[in-house]
Amino acid sequence: MEKYLEILKGSKLFANVAEPEMISMLACLGSRERQYNEGEFVFRRGDRVDSVSVLAEGGLIVQSDDYWGNRSIITSVGVGELFGVGYLAGEAIMNDVVAAEDSTVISFDAKRVLTVCPSACPRHAQVVRNLVFALSEANLRLVTKLGHIQKRTTREKLMSYLSLMAKKTGSSTFTIPFNRQQLADFLSVDRSAMSAELCRMRDDGLLRFNRNSFTLMESGRA
Question: Are strands 103-109 and 32-36 parallel, antiparallel or unpaired?
Fold first, then answer.
């Protein structure tokens, strides 16, 4: 757990909580650490979530498969990000959460997080407020995704998503958390059609790419 203290300190869950206070709260909140191999399920659809979780290492994908096996990627989870917060009310989880690579997750007992403990940790109320903000951000991410997939063409969907990633990272060169198939599933487009469109966008001087690394061209010329 000690090796991930900096990750926890930078997470939304412990925002505005000093490190000494955070450390004293770890046992109080029932913290536990678990490793997942690439491809392993962290949660399956239908599970009940009884913890607040932070990704300490690796990467996760939140995905949903329909009856015929068609996959849609809802979002990705990066290091330091919270997940599962939207299901603390007791509803069964609607999607699968899968390790996109070997990952480490640190979880906290939801009841302990949401209930002020007998020792009355001075910053416990701050942690509860942080959860509310995290839930709001999760909803915003879903609304943002809807903005991408509601675009009419594959090119428009790609430009919407890649433009947002450039703004988010503050750089015209950035790495996305998806491989080609995952990006297609995220944007709800056919992979082959998307790959062909990316090549056309490259030929049109709009971008350069290598695997999941992209550079957007300001001048529109390579």
Answer: antiparallel
pLDDT range class, residue 74, cuts 50, 70, 90: very high
**pTM recorded for the entire structure:** 0.82
Nearest-angstrom CA–CA distance, 145 and 152: 14
Model pLDDT for residues 19-30, shown as the tens digit of each residue: 888 998 888 899
Domains (ranges, CATH) in the chain? 2-148 (2.60.120.10), 151-216 (1.10.10.10)
- The three-state DSSP-derived secondary structure of the chain is CHHHHHHHHCCHHHCCCCHHHHHHHHHHCCCEEEEECCCCEEECCCCECCEEEEEEECCEEEEEECCCCCEEEEEEECCCCEECHHHCCCCECCCEEEECCCEEEEEEEHHHHHCCCCCCCCCHHHHHHHHHHHHHHHHHHHHHHHHHHCCCCHHHHHHHHHHHHHHHHCCCEEECCCCHHHHHHHHCCCHHHHHHHHHHHHHCCCEEEECCEEEECCCCCC
Assigned token pair, 62: 């939140």
Tens of pLDDT, residues 130-189: 988 888 888 888 899 999 999 999 999 999 999 999 999 999 999 999 999 999 999 999
Residue type, 110: A
Which residue did the predictor score with more confidence, 78 or 69?
78
Q: What's the rounded Cα separation, in Å, for the pair 119 and 37?
A: 36
